[in-house]
Structure formats: C-alpha cells, structure tokens
Design goal:
12 strands; four-stranded antiparallel β-sheet; about 500 residues; about 15% strand; eight-stranded mixed β-sheet; single chain; alpha/beta
Length: about 500
Amino acid sequence: MTDRIAAWERPRSAALGALVFGAGIGALATEITASRLLAPYFGSSTIVWANLIGIVLGALALGYWLGGRVADRRPEPRLLGLIVLVAAICVAVIPFAAKPFLELTVDGLDTASAGAVVGSFLAVLLLCAPPVVLLGMVSPFAIRLAVSSIDTAGAVAGRLYALSTAGSLVGVFLPALVAIPAVGTQRTFLLVAVALAASSCFLLGSRFLVVAALLATLLLVPPGAIKAEEGLIHEETSFYQYIGVVERSDGRRLLHLNEGVAVHSVWRPDSVLTGGVWDAFLALPPLLGRPLERVAILGNAGGTTARALGVYYPDAEIDGVELDPAVSRVGREYFGMEDNPRLTVHDVDARPFLRSTDERYDLIVVDAYRQPYVPFYLATREFFRLVREHLTPGGIVALNVAAVPDDRRLVDAVGGTLAAELPQVVEWPALRFNTIVLGLTEPLSRGAFAARLADGPADLASIRELLARDARPLERAEHPWTDDHAPVEWLTDRMIVS
C-alpha cells in the first residue's frame, strides 16, 4: 500500500468531521454516564471521580497512540468506520455486563474487604476503557485520512480536533442535564451507542444503519432494579444521586443513597424512635437550659430527626435543609416527613442556606455527610464561623461524624477545627460508627452539663444519661481545616483502609 490515499478513496471532509464529532460525544458521554453507573455503589466523592477521570484519560491517550500507528499502516476509511462501530457495541454492552461486577462490589462492601471493593471498582471501569480507547483512535486516524498536503496539515488537524472537542462538550452536558434524568442510566448508554453506530455509517455506508437499528431495539429492554435488594419498594436516580427505599418485614423503611452503606433515614409505623443516630439528637435540647424554639437540620434527608423533634419538642420551629428535592419528595411519601407541621423544608445546599438566611437557631444539626465522606466545605473554620453566627446565645451545633472503632483521626480533625471557632467542644460516641461532636457557644462545667441533662422527656432519659456519662472534651486542632486545605477524603480513605 502506498503512503498516500487515492483521491477516490479519500472520504469527504464533512463525513470525517461528522464522525469525529460523534466520537467526541461518545467518549465523554460514556464517562459521564459511567459516573452514574458507579454512584449507587461507590458514591460520587472526589476519589471516585479521580479514578474515573484518570482511567478515561489513560484510555484516550492509549487510543491516540494506537490510532496514529494503525492509520499509518492501514489508512482505510472503512477500517475507521469499523472502529467506531465496535466502540458503539462496547458501549451498548456496558450497562448489561456491569451487573455481576457491581454485585461483587456489594459483597465486598458488606464484608469491608478493601481488596474486593477496589478490584470490582477497577473491573467496572475497565468495562468503560475499551470503547474509550477505540474512540480515542478516531481523531489521529481521521487526520491521517483528511490530510492531502503537508501545506494544509495544521488546518486539517485543528479543524478535526475542534470538532472532537465540541462533541465532547455535548457529551458532557447532554447526558447530565437531559438524557440521564429523562430516561435513566441504562438507556443513556444505549442512546450513546446508537448515535455512535449511526455516525460510523458516514464511512461504512447506509447498509450499516441496521446495526444502529438493532442497538436501538435494546431501548425496549426494561432497566429493572438498579440495585436488587429484598424489600425494595422505591428507587430512582435524581440529578444528584441514587435513591432507594427498602421496607423490612417489621414495617420499618430505610432510605439508602448512592453506595448504600449508610442508612440516611428510618421510618417506623409505631414510634419515632429508631435505635439509630437520629435518637441521639433528641437528647441535646435540655443542654440549652431553656425551651427549644428554633432548629436547623442541615441534611434533612427523609425527615427522621424532624419527625421525632415534632413529637418530643412540638413547639420548636424547624428548618430542614436538604440538597436534593427528590429526597425531600421521597421523605414526604415514605417517611412521614409531613407529620411535623412546624417543619419547613428548604431544597438547597447547607452552606448557601446559612449564608442566605437571617435566622438564628438554638440548635443546628449537621447531618449532611455522605457516609463515609464529609463534604470538605462543611468541616472547615469558615463553615463553623458561619454556624456560630447563626446560633443564639447559649446555642449548640451537633455534627454526626462517621467513625471507625479505635480510629480517632476524623473525629479529632473535625472537632478540633470546630474548637477553633467555639469555646467548648465535646465528643459523644453515640454508636459504634457514629460520633456526635457538640459545639457550645457558652461553656458548661461538667456538673452543669450533667444537671441540665437530668431534665427533659422521660422517654429519652436513658439517652441523656449516656450523653452525660460518655461525653469527653475535644481540644483545638494545631492546624484547623480551612476552605483552602481540608484533606477529608484522604484522611477518610486512610481510616477505612486501616
């Protein structure tokens, strides 16, 4: 084969441009949609995104290298079309082939086996790497086909890479803003596959549209449960996360978000007490030494804490702040959130909410952490200074911090940072994996602390006794976390691995 392509073999510029544009859409759409495939099992932390972006970039780099070498050896338009067609088939396979890997991941998380978690996580990402490698081959291959003279090589390369980048922009925003919310993760993968298969026909000919049509028929396959679980009565994927509601045989309902390791809300038909961390917040109002009048719950979820406060402290006005409107809707439908008429729900992020309100609160509950990770901007001096400004004199802030037995690093870091802004901070290991960190605007002696906890609803006396017995002071951190430097996920990952 000669180095040059015969004029009659050279594809039209418009056809190559359309193919490159489609490949750009496919590569980034695969990455964005893969993030939603992983979120129900791994969450959407910075670590997860770093792994996903890193593997996609590595796959693209490998594709660029392979594309250039293959194009020099076989500069055939038909071969490039076949590469894109195979990539389309690989993308269509992802949502179906991923299921066994995700089930393995669930087993790994349940047994706290880091090896199983990491292994299956990488395996899911490897499902996405093959099509991205193939799509990475497109741009250098297309440039090799389009260049007819060294005099115009730069202009040709610039035009095709601009088209590829423009396609990538569409591939970022179209799935995130339109396709995933409208039709879900599985069908978004299939729509991307259909678009890629159709774009390959610019070089392969219209008869290959039958492949795109066959892939389109897979859209008729019902997605089924995202995460098969006994007692699952509701699930959806919102703009922010996976949401699942499970009903147990005793009538309890549990709210799972993303990876599903933690339970974010509990509803019982016979009691507002749950036996979980939400009960711990009910023990705190007597520490005020006065009636509880106003509460802010940052991370309202399904309203478990607000519902219980409405029973034990019915005169308190509550602002429930929840980032995801879909979670609030699920809370109303499945978790009795509307049982408290004094609850006002605000569907907004916690920190912007505090910045926008002029209200001051007797008690601010911070339970917006996506276990096991703490959003860094809710664990810094700047955030705790904002909290302090919205507390009444004598007011209290309570933070639910995930903890691993015998590992104090996260609790010390968060509590030590809080102590840089409030005069008294104590920790209360309420449960094995939950520590309540309390910040008081007016310090209490040990005796006064215990004396105030002697009062309150009789049903909660045993919880208050545990708080009085087990609360321990926390000292100011030598290097408090700031908005500029808060290594939350790095510390949490080390804690989990240890």
